[in-house]
Amino acid sequence: MSNAEPQNTTSTTREIQLEVGGHNYTFTVSREAFNRFLRESQRDANQAAHNCLLRTVADKERDRLRAAFDANWSLPLQMMAHVQDEIGGEEEVVVKKR
Length: 98
Fold this sequence. Notes:
Elements: E1 5-10, E2 13-20, E3 23-30, H1 31-40, H2 45-56, H3 62-71, H4 75-88
Antiparallel strand pairs: 1-2, 2-3
Helix pairs in contact: 1-2, 2-4
């Protein structure tokens, strides 16, 4: 579904590129935008993903992304999962048993 290519622009902002359905989308996600997504997702995860992605996508790609969301209601969550993976980086998290 997607190829994600993260690019650090600053320590608090990430530029993430996703390819979906043959179209490239560029998202500039700040720490504030991601935290807002996390807060909103407690009420409605799909709507929070929809809103975050539309707020952070490049202006010229917004209408095409909105149309893609209208055609596939689950797409926002699918795309946001990739954005979250890229924001998290490649840190390994290991659960230790006591």
